[in-house]
Design brief:
- There is one protein chain.
- The chain has one domain.
- The chain contains 14 helices and no strands.
- The protein has helices at 3-33, 38-59, 73-85, 91-94, 97-105, 122-146, 148-158, 173-189, 194-212, 229-235, 240-243, 253-258, 282-287, 292-298.
- The chain is globular, with a radius of gyration of 20 Å.
């Protein structure tokens, strides 16, 4: 095979890989949700996609240095289990915690504001739910970057020096609860049905895997619809003007409307991380934000210094990357 033909083949695969994983995951979810054990089979699909993305990362990495171990794999998986799955026994199961909550709550919950358009086709209902939930996710994410108190929990997610499929769920449990509350509560209040929650959970699970993957994919026009790896690498940048952008978790609609969309015509950043320091151990990472000393470490300040009397919310922009 000539070099030119190899280049064409590589470019073609780069364009097809992201939609193939996303659509493949959703097709698998469709059959899982029609099975007698939807959550079980969804997690089988999810694990399969994780494994395939992990393999693809070895073959077509965006950043080769990110293939090297960083000593955080155990912590990444443990945070996924705790923050997204509670007592479930695999990181993949962690990604379906919102589905489990919806299944449980759906059996007794009565919406106080039953405004949901149940007569719409399910596809349109899911699209509406994604837009509504995304506004809550956007708000929670932006607050986490612009408020020092909330940032101390969210910083855990940004503390990694590489992006790959396994650190998709690296969130402090307080950060996860905050996001779930702002994104899911409106749907419960207006009476969205269980099927809608299941599909919103599925979309969030697969896009979450793909935004954090270390894959050399070309997403083109998709960058103006979905949160893609290219956009999310900018969001993890140490440069403040780049990092405090692209807050969308699934869609970039609210970034486009509210002026936080960032996608310059150059390769996205590989210089990622924070200026502060997050503890090494899993339990230490969980407890660190709750102490004044730990918070100062996260913010990149002298842990022995006396805390300031008050700090403006925008002060984090001078601290975090």
């Amino acid at each position: 095979m000539t070099a030119g033909l190899r280049a064409i083949l590589y470019a073609t695969i780069s364009c097809l890989l992201w939609p193939a994983f996303f659509v493949g995951g959703l097709v698998g979810a469709y059959f899982a949700f029609r099975s007698p054990a939807p959550l079980l089979w969804f997690n089988v699909v999810y694990l399969t996609i994780v494994a395939l993305i992990g393999l693809a990362e070895r073959l077509m990495p965006y950043e080769k240095s990110w293939l090297s171990a960083d000593g955080e794999t155990f912590n990444d998986i443990a945070h996924t289990l705790l923050s997204k799955g509670g007592v479930q026994v695999a990181a993949a199961i962690g990604a379906t915690a919102p589905m489990g909550v919806a299944t449980l709550a759906g059996s007794f919950w009565i919406a106080p504001f039953p405004l949901w358009p149940h007569d719409w086709p399910l596809f349109l209902q899911v699209m509406l739910a994604l837009v509504i939930a995304e506004l809550g996710l956007y708000a929670a994410h932006r607050v986490a970057h612009e408020n020092l108190f909330v940032w101390r929990f969210h910083a855990l997610h940004h503390s990694v020096g590489r992006l790959w499929v396994v650190n998709t769920g690296r969130f402090h449990i307080v950060d996860s609860i905050f996001k779930i509350a702002l994104s899911q509560a409106p749907l419960y209040l207006i009476g969205a049905p269980l099927a809608v929650f299941l599909w919103v959970g599925a979309v969030t699970a697969f896009i979450g895997l793909l935004t954090h993957c270390n894959l050399d994919v070309r997403t083109g026009v998709l960058d103006y619809v979905f949160s893609t790896p290219r956009l999310h690498r900018w969001h993890h940048s140490r440069v403040l003007a780049e990092g405090n952008t692209n807050y969308g978790e699934n869609l970039v609609l609210w970034d486009l409307l509210l002026g936080t969309y960032f996608n310059p015509p150059r390769p996205s950043s590989t210089d990622i991380g924070i200026s502060g320091r997050v503890s090494n151990g899993f339990l230490a990472q969980l407890s660190q934000p709750f102490s004044a000393r730990g918070a100062r470490q996260i913010l990149g300040r002298n842990p022995n210094a006396a805390p300031a009397v008050a700090e403006a919310p925008q002060a984090r922009k001078a601290v975090n990357s």
